[in-house]
Design brief:
about 600 residues, alpha/beta, ABC transporter transmembrane region fold, Rossmann fold, six-stranded mixed β-sheet, four-stranded antiparallel β-sheet, about 65% helix, elongated
Length: about 600
């Protein structure tokens, strides 16, 4: 379920564009009354716009007097001419004012919907996602929605209305040949534009793909700033991004060059069309079949049509670009969450807090099984520890309990309730976790602590910080609880971040606790102090401890030893030592390492 950089190619482009366009419609429905009123203003503006050359014809004819005739100055016509121009401007601006709310509301709704959708997607998607690419796609998608609404409201629909009105004028007042020439010219112009633009779209699609890739590579290198520095690979990261941008540059140059071909072809069609129709109009005036005012009218209509028609190529190109820009966002919105609540799912009710794994089998991929027939029970108030080598499946137990994944076989239950039948939100409300790798928001320490409970008071936050032995450290900072921790908490050490995570879990105070190597980044002195506080915090709580250092779980009610996804030993600390099995070997190795460290 990773982000796909492959865009829809030419054979399916029209179908994809239509689907992308349909995706816009719900964002217009909320303000349908305002949209209709804006369209009405648009029609009035175009009626006034087409009326201008018609009145201009009458003015010219009234001024075209022969020698000896009395010139009657057309005051009324001139006033109507001015009023029509003013009306056209007024209704255009009123249309813009009415539609502004629609456009920006649609952008806001699309952005929030996308963010909400991203939060709904499963953990597997977010483990494989490319953050820079998603950020770029989201930004371009929201901008393309605004662009598409603008183009259709301010370009396509106005031109269509104006063409319709001009058709009525031409057919009702002039020889049919003028209508044929004008609309044949338009047909050739549009056909040429569409053909060239469809060919050019390949370069735009490649530009989008490469731009997303370059953004991902840049953001990824910055997120892993320390790793880049550790290995002196700044030049390699710059070169990787430069190679991608070099391909982007080649496609951008080809795209821009081909646009010159398009613009010249459009200009040639317009020039030939104007020449032909003016030839016919001049011939009609010479034959006294048309007045000088008629010539002016035809010329004015041509100018009014070909000015917006001259932008048709640009508008069509931008519409296609915007639809292509939306393709990645639409693809993202079409991603289906791997874990979903059933239609009849009910909230989890936690009374005692018993956790039960029954014959659980699970694998992240079909060809790689992680857990095999895992069964154990954590009774209410008990503390169960899970130990084992890296990759044995310890952290997978926590992810299944949080329902980031569903089991492949067997079931996970809390108080006898199968988690697959419960709502995800209620399951996660009942569980608190201190993860091995704590990631913080780029905000204040107070914000990160209070994140665990929306109803927590400042007194509650400080109490949790004291229990996690981080209050004194916070108070020593210049801004104390208002200190900004930096992106992903980079301004704090690993131990300080873990203590923030511990304080958050204490503040949440759930019935079930998970400590996933919660003290792995702490020194021995702080570890022992926090272990005592965690022991107090976990009293009367069902606790699952995933541990690497065995010295931290000697007081567990029961210890499970995982090896290659199977429980190979189970018992208390003393019992497992007496068995002289895997646990005893792990204990001996760690004790030996500890003695070396002390020396």
């Amino acid at each position: 379920m990773s982000v796909r950089f492959k865009y829809t190619e030419a054979p399916n482009a029209n179908r994809s564009d239509l689907a992308n366009f349909r995706a816009l419609l719900p964002y217009l429905w909320e303000y349908r009354g305002r949209v209709l009123l804006a369209l009405f203003c648009l029609i009035l503006a175009k009626v006034a716009n087409v009326g201008v050359p018609v009145i201009l014809k009458s003015i010219v004819d009234s001024l075209d007097v022969k020698v000896g005739e009395v010139l009657i100055f057309p005051v009324a016509m001139l006033l109507i001419y001015g009023a029509l121009r003013l009306s056209s401007s007024f209704f255009n601006e009123l249309r813009d004012v009415l539609f502004t709310r629609v456009r920006y509301r649609a952008m806001r709704r699309l952005t929030i919907r996308t963010l909400t959708h991203l939060h709904e997607l499963s953990l597997r998607y977010h483990l494989e996602r490319k953050t820079g690419a998603i950020s770029s796609d989201l930004q371009r998608g929201a901008a393309s929605l605004s662009s598409l609404l603008n183009y259709f409201t301010f370009s396509i629909i106005p031109v269509t209305v104006e063409f319709s009105l001009v058709t009525v004028v031409l057919i009702s007042q002039y020889d049919f040949i003028f209508t044929v020439i004008i609309f044949c010219s338009i047909a050739v112009y549009i056909a040429f534009t569409f053909k060239v633009m469809n060919w050019r779209m390949h370069h735009r699609i490649e530009m989008n793909r490469l731009e997303s890739k370059a953004n991902y590579e840049a953001v990824d290198s910055l997120i892993n700033y320390e790793t880049v520095k550790y290995f002196n690979n700044e030049a390699m990261e710059s070169q990787r991004c430069n190679d991608t941008l070099s391909q982007w540059e080649d496609n951008a140059v080809l795209s821009q060059t081909s646009m010159s071909v398009l613009n010249f072809g459009q200009g040639a069609i317009i020039a030939v069309s104007v020449t032909i129709i003016m030839f016919f109009a001049a011939n009609e005036v010479a034959a006294a079949k048309m007045t000088l005012g008629d010539l002016v009218l035809v010329n004015a209509i041509l100018l009014q049509l070909f000015i917006p028609l001259g932008f048709l190529g640009v508008v069509y190109r931008q519409i296609r670009y915007s639809l292509a820009d939306m393709q990645q966002l639409v693809t993202l919105l079409n991603e289906k969450p791997e874990i979903t609540d059933k239609e009849d799912a009910i909230p989890l009710t936690v009374t005692r807090g018993e956790v039960r794994f029954e014959h659980v089998g699970f694998g992240y991929h079909d060809d790689r099984q992680i857990l095999f027939d895992v069964s154990f029970v954590i009774k209410p108030g008990e503390k169960i520890a899970v130990v084992g080598a890296s990759g044995a499946g310890k952290s997978t137990l926590a992810r299944l309990l949080f329902r980031f994944y569903d089991v492949g076989s067997g079931c996970v239950m809390i108080d006898g309730q199968d988690l697959r039948q419960m709502t995800q939100q209620s399951v996660r409300e009942a569980i608190g976790i201190v993860p091995q790798d704590t990631v913080l928001f780029n905000d204040t320490i107070y914000y990160n602590l209070a994140y665990a409970s929306k109803s927590a008071t400042r007194k509650d936050v400080i109490r949790a910080a004291k229990m996690a032995h981080i209050h004194d450290f916070i108070e020593s900072l210049p801004d104390q609880y208002d200190t900004v921790v930096g992106e992903r908490g980079l301004k704090l050490s690993g131990g300080e971040k873990q203590r923030v995570a511990i304080a958050r879990t204490i503040l949440k105070s759930p019935k079930i606790l998970i400590f996933d190597e919660a003290t792995s980044a702490l020194d021995s002195k702080n570890e022992q102090a926090i272990l005592e506080d965690l022991k107090m915090a976990s009293m009367d709580h069902t606790t699952l401890v995933i541990a690497h250092r065995l010295s931290t779980i000697v007081d567990a009610d029961q210890i499970l030893v995982l090896d290659k996804g199977r429980i190979v030993e189970m018992g208390q600390h003393g019992q497992l030592l007496n068995k002289q099995g895997c646990y005893a070997q792990m204990w001996a190795l760690q004790q030996k390492q500890q003695m070396k460290d002390e020396v």
